[in-house]
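Appendix B. Raw example, untouched.
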Amino acid sequence: MAMYLLSARRIINLPHERTQLHNSGHHLASDFGEIEARRQRMHQQIFAGIMIFLTLLVVVLQSSFWWYSQGGVDPMEQARQRMAWEWETKQHTRLREQWERETKLKQQEREQWEWEMNQQREKWEDEAINHRIEREKWERERQEYEREREQWDREHDGEARQREEERRRAGTFWEGPYREPHCSGFDTRIYAGFLRNLPDGQSWTQACQEMPIMINSRPVTKPHKCEGCIRSLGVQRMTARLVGLNDGDGWRAMCGSTPARIFGRPSKVPDYCEDSPGGMTGIWEFENLSCR
């Protein structure tokens, strides 16, 4: 660009010089030679400028070729790579921010979990303390109950011995025992006996439970159940469970029409029947003057 401006300046100045030469009218030949010399110098300068420009262009092209041959990237490729790198940087930043958010959330969840576990642990510890206190209280109550029970057993044993002595003096005895002719279950037979000569003021149920009876030469201390008098009516009540029924039999009808043997003696049909948890049960009531 500088060469073209220089050439233009020279061209513009030439007409002005020619005008001066024309107006002066002196030394025309010598001035013409000088003009030609200047023109030649100008042409030489232009040629030299063109050669310099071409030389620089060749150098630039050679440098570019060498740069490309050494793995250089053109500006478009650089721009594309720069955009790709910026996009990857943004993606990396976004992923890192997401990872930081997730890490923070996990940290918060872990802190919440640790807090809940601490709360639960404290609750367990409180419950364990309360449970221990409660167990100690139960243990004290149990020991107190055992002491009271031992004292009651001693008193009861003393009272039982006293009642036994009173019954012995009064001649209280078991009448029987009477054996049922048939077994009531597998390897099981019912034995029954009547308690006689019970002293006034003593409970017949208590005496029934406390006074042993000899069955097959063995003392039996606790009966399966005690049945006794209805003192206000002078009636003794006995019960028996109905067994041996078949499918389709009417339990209540069979109970009301089936006689029984009580204490080895035949008896009439039950006075009435009850549907008890153990099955249909017949109930007999006998007049017994000793029950008054």
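End of appendix B.
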